[in-house]
Specification:
Distance between the termini: 47 Å
Radius of gyration: 22 Å
Strand content: 15-25%
Helix content: 25-40%
Number of strands: 15
Structural class: alpha/beta
Shape: globular
């Protein structure tokens, strides 16, 4: 006789490129995010969650495998991956569904999901340009052409807009509204008797920064925190980031044509449009929460909200991501399940985004693979003693946007951050207590050499421990069939 499966439904909502300082309930009054505030009020917020890679694909590959980039081999955007721990959930009896952006390579890999409704980057100019996802099909059936780089470049002020444009097609067909609408439709329409594992991937606020006009106007009318890097900081940037600044002026990645010295008005518009896009996502989160409640299983649902990395938005004089400053590596992570975890709490210990993997598996009654480098967050959620991590790590290599270095590796403790660039004598060292904005590189400071050596040793120990722990790992990131399809 079959018994009811009362394991919790699990809903993971992932935005793309959302900074930590974009949620009002976390202390950022320039935002209106009532639905995310609701999750904060009812949930547990990890205030020092850092990603393992400062760009989309390697971060997501790390999150959904439980391994660091140097272990799973996915260091940069465009590199193939598709094997995930989601398959463990599926085999255990969960109905596994992905709606929106996952950024597997290939885009439509099963990745352990029973159902996938793929929506990828808004602007796929170089990579996957002729891959037609669910959003492309929806626009096409309405006789519409997606707003993208080719049309934005025709604007007289294209190079002044820094990637900020209004969405002038029907609002329901905006990428984030579309993903929210498909999620609502699926939840209302699909009868599911098994416990549900649902991943909702919003394409925003990744550029182009493209809110609908009315929400853009709302934030354009506000005083907003704007970047103000000093001449001393820009002059003291590492050569890799100086080169990236010039590269981003020459190449308009994701419809962002960068400037070395943007005006305050240009920076205000970019941030206003970015923040407006976050509020649009917040509205869709509210629709999803309401639909889950109407579905009748909200009391037995664990909701996770997070993002894959942040965005400099002009901080440090830089555009977008790749540089492992806290604006990039620190992301919101909120876990809400009031019937299971006491809400309204903050956990300030260091954790990594991919720690969600074993945490979720344990919710499903699955023992995580012993080789996983991710660590469970459940003691913190259950309000038990929780030390967190001594340090968090971040890796990036081989990306077309990072032309000045082949590989970087970051270690961040509570008090300091060290960034090494492979094959280069000069790196970055920051005292996060004295300089939380990471504006003064102490690499050559004689008084800091002992700290630099200590962090180097800690990074070496991490690599050695990682190699030993994962020596018996047999999980392939790309299946033979997926590898064949990429040829």
């Amino acid at each position: 006789m079959n018994t009811p499966d009362n394991r919790p439904d699990i809903v993971v909502i992932i935005t793309d490129q959302q900074r930590y300082d974009t949620i009002r309930a976390l202390g950022f009054d320039h935002m209106d995010t009532p639905n995310l505030d609701r999750l904060v009020d009812r949930g547990v917020t990890f205030t020092q969650c850092h990603v393992t890679a400062p760009s989309c694909v390697p971060c997501r590959a790390s999150l959904f495998t439980g391994y660091y980039p140097h272990t799973n081999g996915v260091y940069a955007n465009g590199q193939p991956w598709s094997r995930t721990w989601v398959d463990d959930l599926r085999r255990s009896g969960y109905r596994t569904v992905s709606i929106g952006k996952m950024h597997t390579i290939p885009y439509d890999a099963k990745a352990g999901f029973d159902e996938r409704y793929v929506v990828e980057n808004k602007d796929r100019y170089m990579e996957g340009r002729w891959f037609f996802d669910e959003w492309d099909k929806a626009l096409g059936t309405h006789g519409l052409k997606k707003q993208q780089r080719e049309t934005y470049r025709l604007l007289d002020d294209y190079r002044d807009r820094l990637g900020a444009f209004t969405w002038d097609l029907p609002a329901a067909l905006h990428s984030d509204n579309f993903v929210g609408g498909v999620t609502k439709w699926w939840l209302e329409s699909k009868p599911v008797v098994e416990p549900l594992f649902l991943v909702v991937g919003f394409p925003g606020p990744h550029p182009p920064y493209d809110p609908t006009p009315e929400i853009a106007e709302k934030y354009m009318a506000r005083d907003l925190p704007l970047p103000d890097p000093t001449a001393a900081e820009l002059d003291g940037l590492h050569p890799v980031w100086k080169e990236k600044r010039h590269h981003d002026v020459e190449v308009d990645h994701d419809s962002v044509s960068w400037k070395l010295d943007p005006t305050p008005d240009e920076m205000h518009r970019q941030r206003a449009y970015y923040y407006a896009n976050v509020e649009m996502i917040d509205t869709q989160v509210g629709r999803i929460l309401d639909t889950l409640e109407e579905r009748g299983r909200l009391d037995n649902t664990i909701i996770v909200f997070t993002s894959d990395h942040g965005d400099n938005l002009g901080d440090h004089g830089l555009s977008q991501k790749w540089a492992p400053y806290d604006q990039i590596t620190r992301v919101p992570l909120i876990i809400s399940a009031p019937e299971r975890f006491t809400g309204g709490r903050q956990v300030d210990e260091l954790v990594q985004l991919f720690d969600l993997g074993p945490t979720i598996l344990e919710w499903a009654g699955i023992t995580p693979d012993a080789t996983l480098e991710a660590e469970t967050l459940n003691p913190a959620l259950e309000d038990k003693p929780f030390a967190g991590r001594d340090a968090v790590f971040c890796e990036q290599g081989g990306d077309v946007n990072m032309t000045g270095a082949e590989l970087l590796t970051m270690i961040r403790t509570r008090t300091h951050k060290l960034v090494l660039f492979q094959g280069q004598d000069e790196g970055q060292l920051f005292d996060l207590e004295a300089d939380p904005g990471e504006t003064r590189n102490l690499w050559a400071d004689e008084a800091c050499q002992q700290m630099k050596s200590r962090l180097r040793e800690q990074m070496l120990d991490w690599h050695i421990d990682s190699a030993w722990k994962t020596r018996d790992a047999r999980r392939l990131i790309v299946s033979p069939s997926d590898a064949q399809s990429l040829q």
